[in-house]
Every structure is written in structure tokens, then in C-alpha cells.
Amino acid sequence: MKSAGIGAVSAIKAAHPDKLVFVDLKTADAGELEATLAFEAGADLVTVMGAADDDTVRGAVAAGRKYGKDVVADMITVVEGRVARIREVAKLGVSFVEIHAGLDEQARPGYSIATLLQDGREAGVPFSIAGGIKVDTIASVREAGAKVAVAGGAIYNAPDPGAAAAELKKRATR
Ligand SMILES: O=C([C@H](O)CO)[C@H](O)[C@H](O)COP(=O)(O)O
């Protein structure tokens, strides 16, 4: 989104109309406006920041309802009181909540995906996990009850990204 803009969404959807297109907008304000831009370009799901104002989340959800598409609340940067905020944003109508440690958080010494999984189990609402998922951790994400496992670096940094994605999918669905 940052380098190519919303046109990339239309191009990807046109090339792969049978695939779900997840647009990781990480919207922090003007939720309805930003989500509408992405849905009109062909997005099937968008993210809004879970840390954003409740009205920003509600706006994105309103756009999702208008287009019959999904809005995901991304909990990146929310660490203190995360379970409580996960439950709050779930009530605002998002399809699921992404419990997410971003790349900068992952780079800190002692980072572990375990705290994300624990919060997912505790929150009791539909959730996804993002935060450095690898082939050896993706099964634990499924076992914690996540609806979706988001893997970035494990695919795009792999020598053979297609093979890496296939292996992750196999272990996630076993
Ligand atoms: O959303 C992401 C991050 O904020 C950079 O944009 C990543 O796509 C997400 O964290 C998944 O990537 P990995 O953590 O490398 O699996």
C-alpha cells in the first residue's frame, strides 16, 4: 500500500478474482473512508487499528457491512490491557481480532509468540495471530484456537516462497 497505493489492490484482484484479498491498511483514523477505498478497489478484508478510536473502528465496520466484506481489528502496539481491548473491539462488530506483535516488537530480545496465544485463549472471541509465525510454531497457533494464522517473513524471506507457503498451510490445517 505504501509504495504502490490502492491501485495495487485492483491489480491483484483483477489478476486473481478467485482469491480473497486481505488489505492490511492498519487504519488509524477515518475508518469508513479508508475501508471504502479498499473495498471499492476489490479488498475482501481490511485491517483497522484496534488502538484507534472506537468511532474509527465503527466506521470501518459500517463500510464492511455496506460492501458485504470483513473488517479485522489489528492489535499491534496494544500490550497493556490487551485482552480487555480485544473484547471491546470485538463488540464493535469486527469479523475477528488480529493479535499481533509487529516487526519492531519481534526484534526485541526475549520476544515469544506465546503471550499472543495466551491472550487469544483468554479473550474468548474469534482471533488471528501475527508475529513471526514459522513452520515450527504454526501448529501452536491452530491449537490455541486461532481462526487465521498470518505469516509474512516466513514466506517472503524463504529461498522458495511458494514451497514455504505450502508447508505452512499443510501444518496449519493438519
Ligand atoms: O503486518 C505485518 C507487519 O506489521 C509489517 O507490515 C506483517 O505482515 C505481519 O507481522 C506478518 O509478518 P511476520 O510477522 O513476518 O510473519
UniProtKB/TrEMBL annotation:
The keyword Lyase applies. Residues 1-168 form the Orotidine 5'-phosphate decarboxylase domain. One of its GO terms (molecular function) is 3-dehydro-L-gulonate-6-phosphate decarboxylase activity. One of its GO terms (biological process) is L-ascorbic acid catabolic process. Keywords: Lyase. Its EC number is 4.1.2.43. It comes from the Bacteria. InterPro entries: Aldolase_TIM (IPR013785), OMPdeCOase_dom (IPR001754), RibuloseP-bd_barrel (IPR011060). It is an enzyme of class 4 (lyase). Pfam families: OMPdecase. This is 3-hexulose-6-phosphate synthase. It comes from Amycolatopsis endophytica.
